[in-house]
Amino acid sequence: MAIRYTIKAQIIDITADSPKSEDVFFVDTNVWYWLTYSKATSPILRQSSEYPMYLKKALNAKSRIHHSGLSLAELAHLIERTEREIYEKKVCMIKPKEYRHNLAGERSRVFLEIQTAWGQVIDLADPLAITIDELATAEALNRFQSEKVDGYDLFILESMKNHGVAQIITDDGDFAAVCDIQVFTANRNVIKAARNQSRLLAR
């Protein structure tokens, strides 16, 4: 079934946009994965090429770039999963918990991959601090009613709001359903929906 996006954000096609020095971007985990993890693969070429290219242009343009500590959890999960899939292709099928606990050599290698990727993230971007307390969880829960994003993204959005950051570079179409932000993406389904709903912004 095709995803039916209701576009509430302003959508910018990164394949037709040039970053500006005044831009202040939050960079989503999927973009960090394709930029910093040497074995990142994607069946969709734009994911592994367009996002790293746009982020490099943003850095060259002196745009401000931000990350969240929450992204480490997602990035670590993606890298561990990919490393397990590589192991399975070379050796044998293995359950995630068995891979994590039974293979000390693999665990050390996964840690080094995550450490290397995260080191690049913190070298390239400034953190957006977030305190996940009772107020933050209440705000996130309220947001869940109206905005179709997952749990991690609820807190990322709260962090962006608290720091006055309204621009996000992401392939995740869920962010397109969020009001009052600009989504910089190469996601063709989101761009098509935005064009049809007059939410595609050319800068």
SSE blueprint and pairings:
Blueprint: E1 10-13, E2 24-27, H1 29-36, H2 45-60, E3 64-67, H3 70-90, H4 96-102, H5 104-124, E4 126-127, H6 134-146, H7 151-162, E5 167-169, E6 182-185, H8 188-196
Parallel strand pairs: 1-6, 2-3, 2-5, 3-4, 5-6
Helix pairs in contact: 1-2, 1-3, 1-5, 3-5, 6-7
Characterization of the model:
With 203 residues, the protein is of the alpha/beta class. Helices cover 53% and strands 10% of the residues. The chain has helices at 29-36, 45-60, 70-90, 96-102, 104-124, 134-146, 151-162, 188-196, and strands at 10-13, 24-27, 64-67, 126-127, 167-169, 182-185. It has a six-stranded parallel β-sheet with strand order 1-6-5-2-3-4, with helices on both faces. α1 (29-36) packs across α2, α1 packs across α5 (104-124) and α6 (134-146) packs across α7. The radius of gyration is 18 Å and the shape is globular. The mean pLDDT is 93.
Q: State which percent range the strand residues make up.
A: 5-15%
Task: Detail the poorly predicted runs.
Answer: none
Mean pLDDT: 93
Q: What form results from the Cα inertia axes?
A: globular
- The whole-angstrom Rg is 18 Å
Overall SS class: alpha/beta
Give the end-to-end Cα distance, rounded to a whole number of Å: 32 Å
Tell me the helix content: 40-55%
Q: Count of DSSP E strands?
A: 6
- Give, in spatial order, the strands making up the sheet with the most strands: 1-6-5-2-3-4
- Please outline the major beta sheet: 6 strands, parallel
Order of helices and strands: EEHHEHHHEHHEEH
Helix count equals 8
